[in-house]
Batch of 2 targets.
Target 1
Amino acid sequence: CQDADQRGPSSASSIGRAWMHAGDRSGETIRPIVGDGQVRKHMDISGRTVLIVGGTTGIGRALAQRFVDAGSTVVVGGRNIEQVDGVETVRIDVTDAASVAQARDEVLAKHPELDVVVTMSGVMLTEDLRDPDHIAQAETTISVNLLGTIRVIDAFTPHLLGRGAGDIITV
């Protein structure tokens, strides 16, 4: 990465604060910067309205609780929302574009002030490369981990652009 002082304006700055890591040319200094080139040590997570897609268990659920503890409004999205207590939920299957659009519409109808979208749906399937049928696992991994992330970002970017600010976090 180039040093923050040497970077020109990025398209990420038009969305709000896109977190990146920038270091000096020697690679010794790593610090978070935002799309506008300003250095920030921490993201303010208080008083935000957050959607965490893939937040029904594990790290995602813990992240949701961290936002709640900081005073943010949180909606957790996933396929198995029945296992979530204590926060609002929305059913979403990131492999299905219609499901993503429906979840977007539902969340934005209830929370037009949404300003943080976290996308962290993922699978980690065992593949045996000696088995010619392993391609099914590879396709599932790509559909969830890559295309699912893109679907969620594409669904919410127009809203965040319309607000003039917001954060998209991919995990």
Note: Confidence is low (pLDDT under 50) at residues 1-33.
Target 2
Amino acid sequence: REELLWEGIEPEPGQYSESLLERHDARVVRLAAAGIQILGLLDYGVDEAVKLLREVPIKVTHAIYAGPFNQTNERDYAEARKKDIEKLKAAGRVGAETVLALTGPANGLVPDEARRQVVRGLADLADAARDAGVKIGLEPLHYNLYKDSFLFRLADALDIIKEVDHANVGV
């Protein structure tokens, strides 16, 4: 298993280490040549990922992630959804099929409020996902990952999806 991480390539925003970037690019080409067709490419930035995808036979299956959906005020909620829409558009541009959605931790919201916020967020993003040509996949996580999600049961995720009721939102 070979990790392809952006860490170290851009130590400061807008400053790139060319040698690390070249090594990263070489690994992507080498892995693609070896038949590995799924890699995390959005770390390149959308324009660079689109360019690279024209050069090597890599299929983007999913992007991570929409969310969290745990904002406690309207200003933060609006800003988070704006960022999510940009993520959906980016995922569509690179040909991803799905954008995974994680709830984030409860962030002080009681369970019913947290659930309502997820339903609201997914419903607010559903049309943007359709327009971007992607689907949103709500992902329940193991309870040991409580810092990343308050959604642990598949049954709860399915209930949320049923309530959202949009073809571009699923599990």
Note: The longest strand covers residues 62-66.
